[in-house]
Every structure is written in C-alpha cells, then in structure tokens.
Amino acid sequence: MEKEMPKVSIVVAIYKSEKFLDKLILSLIHQTYENIEIILVDDGSPDGSGAICDKYAAQDKRICVIHKQNGGACEARNVGMEKASGEYMVIVDGDDWLETDYVEYMMMLIQTTGSDMAMSDKIFTTRDRVQTKEDKIETWTAEEAACAIIYPRIAIGPWNKIYSTKLLRENNISFSVKWSGEGLHFSCVAAQHANHVGVGHRKVYNYRLNNVNSGLTHYNLQMGLNAFENIRIIKDTLYLDSEKLRTACDWHIWKNYGYILFLIIATDSKRENLALYKDCRKNLLLRLPKVLVKSRVGGVQNFTCFFKDCSLHLSQNEGFEKNGRHCKRIRWNNKSLAPYSGGNAWIS
Questions:
Q1: 3-state secondary structure of 195
Q2: H helix or E strand, kind and range, residue 326
Q3: DSSP tag of 13
C-alpha cells in the first residue's frame, strides 16, 4: 500500500485583505499537493475578509476559519499555528498568493534533502514575473541558511519556506517578538535549529507590492525601531553562536541604523528625533570599516549612504591585491571624513 503524503498546514493571517482574498484562497485550494489543511485566521478584519473566508470554507472541507479580535499579525499566526495538525507548516501573508505547485515543490525539497526546513531563494513579485531559468537543489547547513537569511541573500519573511511542525514545537519557535522583523526572527531561529535546510531556486511564491493597506507601503519609524530591536534579540540569543552568524548580525544591525535614518528623513521627523538621528548617523560611520572587512554580503554590489553634509559610496567590485590580501576601497565625498588624503581609504 502506497504511503500517504505527509499533511501540510498552510497558515494565513488575514486583515483588510478582501480585495486580494479570492486570488489567495483559490491559489491554496488548487495546490497540486492535495493533502493540505488551510487555516485562515480572520484577525478582526473590519472589511468583508471574514465572510469571504467562510464562503470558501463551506466549499472545501480542508479549510478551517478562525475569527478573533484584532491582535496583530504575530498573534494571528500563532493562533493558526496552534491549530495546525500537519507534519509540515507553511506561513502565507494575507495579500500574497502561491503558484499551484508551491507545496509540492517545497515538499520535494524537504524529501530530496532530508531537511527539517526548506526554502527557495527566489520569489515572484507584482513587478517581476520572470521565472528562474535554471533550478538546482542544494543542502545548506543550519549556519549557512541562517546567515543567508540575516544578510539577507534570501527573502527574510517566514513565507517562501516550509518548516517541520516538530521542529517548531520542540524548540518553542513562534512569532514571539514585535511586528517588523518578526519574520526574520522566526525564519532565522528555525534555520538554526534545523538539521539542515533544503534550498531551491524556482519561484513559487508571489509577493504583492501594491497593497496600500500593507504596513510595508507606509513609512513608520516605529517599524524601523522594532526591526532594530529584533535583530539585536537574534544576536543576543543565537542558538548557533558562531563568528559567521555574529558577523551577519553586525551587518544587519549596521543596515538598520541606515533604515532608521531613512525613516526619520522620510517621515520628516528629524527635529523630534534629533538624538536618534545623530546616533544613527554616527554608528553608520563608526561601524562601517568593521562591517566592510568582515561581512559577506554576496550579491549586494553597492552601498550608498546619504547624509546632509556627506555621502559615502562603496563599490564592492573595486578592489585589488595588496601584500597578498584583497583590499576594498572606500571613497568619501566629504574629504574631512576620509581616513586618508584624497578621500580614499583601502581596507583589507
């Protein structure tokens, strides 16, 4: 007798998503991998999202709808995860959608590599509809996968991935931190606890960039502060406490100083946040040499940091061999900040 395919639970937190829900839910119902349960968590959405969920639940017995008071995406996901009965778990955002072979592809990565967790390093967006030309299945160590998520060389959200339910529950992995950066925390912690991680390159997740109700479409300083707090939590609680992971965290912390600075400028709140503005600007400069020397930012080719009175540009393609060591060049447009005359500094 042929062994039944493992059940996969798909957890979706939903809030103000009625415009996109039909496309999302139909993409779940039509998965080529059929042994799934679909858990839709209506997080007190004030629009018609709850009614749409109920409509589809009446048509497909694999769908379970949970209606709850609004408590945020993290709480809604946790409620859905507690309900999940599958051997594996997938997290989907309420305004995105899946390719029909998403679960089948992710389970293939799990089974081919024998991993507790799997992910693709590529995604579709509403602006990028071109499929990856070549796919290759790889097995990454827990450290390699966690580093790739932190830098990030891979989409940092909890979506575009699949997790062993046993892995999550035995290690108490949930959305236990503040919103913004919570997906980075969740997927990074899961990767560290995995035996190893299966990785593919095919695009099977569709990430929406045109939802005006999404928190990511509005500038919000608190969002940046929460993300900064969460990357510090990641570094302070590393399960795999290695130099590579600490260096990756340092790079992400440095990047977050720039993100907060950007949000202060974008929200025109420099006057109210002057001390924070100055602290971020100072840390971007002071931490940069160490970050450049130690970090492994992979495909990121250029950094550009803009300040009111100075700008810095680093092209990682610029470098040379000096005394047998590869060196990178920093060009400071404001020469008063240059470690060496002429606005150039070589760092090995």
A1: coil
A2: strand 325-332
A3: E
Nearest to 89 by CA among 77, 71, 76, 101: 77
Q: Which two tokens stand for residue 110?
A: 């799990």
Cβ(75)–Cβ(50) below 8 Å: no
pLDDT band at residue 217 under the 50/70/90 scheme: low
d(CA 296, CA 300): 9
CA distance readout (Å), 12 to 67, 77, 96, 305: 12, 7, 10, 36
Reply yes or no: is the peptide bond before residue 152 cis, omega within 30 of 0. Answer: yes
Q: How far is CA 285 from CA 257, 267, 282, in A?
A: 10, 22, 5
What pLDDT, on a 0 to 100 scale, did the predictor assign at position 210?
81
Question: Around Cβ 120, how many Cβ atoms within 10 Å?
Answer: 24
Chain centre to alpha carbon of residue 268: 27
Mean pLDDT across 237-263: 96
Rounded Cα–Cα distance for residues 130 and 123 (Å)? 10
* Mean pLDDT score, 33-51: 98
Residues 6+ apart with CB under 8 A from 228: 181, 253, 256, 257, 259, 260
Distance CA 73, CA 14 (A): 8
Q: What is the pTM of this model?
A: 0.85
Measured distance CA(263)–CA(226) in Å, rounded? 12
* Helix (H/G/I), strand (E/B), else coil: 26: helix
| pLDDT at site 121 | 96
Residue 295 confidence (pLDDT) = 87
Smallest Cα–Cα separation from 150: which of 24, 226, 36, 254?
254
